[in-house]
Design goal:
Shape: globular
Order of helices and strands: HHHEHHEEEHEEEEHHHE
Number of helices: 9
Radius of gyration: 24 Å
Largest sheet: 7 strands, mixed
Protein name: IS701 family transposase
Number of strands: 9
InterPro entries: IS701-like, IS701-like_DDE_dom, RNaseH-like_sf
Length: about 270
Amino acid sequence: MVDDIAVEDVSAWKSGLDDVFALVAGAFRTASVRWRARAYLTGLLAPIERLTKPRLAETMIGRALAAGVEAGWVAADSAYGRDGRFRAFLEARRIPYVVEVPVKQTVADLDGDRRVDTLVARAPDEAWHRVSAGPGVRGEREYDWAWATVPNFGGVPAGFARTLLARRSIEDPTDIAYYLCFHPDSIEREEIVRVAGARWAIEECFQAAKNECGLDHYQVRKWNGWYRHITMAMLGHAFLAVTAASDPKAHAGWEDSQSPRSVVSWR
């Protein structure tokens, strides 16, 4: 959304700072500090568009598509998956997705919206299939998966389907993750599971870069300093990743990072 603040309102706030400075003069003795305080307030109240994570993701995906990058799938966590506008953005461009959603997420059913956890709780035993989501440091990442087609009430494009996917832990059956999916209707279960698990590699990459290279250990206030820190941390992580992949001894020393954790027709 865009903040509806007039220029004169910002000016009034800036001039009002003089009264604040008079009260806390000891903290604002130099002109540079007063200037920075005014600049901060001006930026904070400026009538510029502030974008949420899903809106930023749409911008990034749009730029990639405009540059000719082909996207086979989009995988995302619940910060994006819960956003209906983000899912509609992908569907309008025929981009298949597997996005995690919170337990309170609802989907349309014949007699109204139903929570995904309610639907999954009613899945028969035969709906669950043990499938690997891909290899991990300790072997295959196996979970029990249930996959269902949800009713088509929202104009699904021809040749596509909307489905609900659930991932249940083998060790703890109460640990269940939920996903909304959009894809060509010919897609097989193993492919959907593979895409759901593909996001872990990205999360592990970020976690390793934070742990090993201090990706998030910056203390900067300006763009140039932040950009330099992030660039060097990413370069360092790339070096470590290549070394670990090419040197068995180096690879053995890496630590495993934390993994993230009706009328429907069960497949």
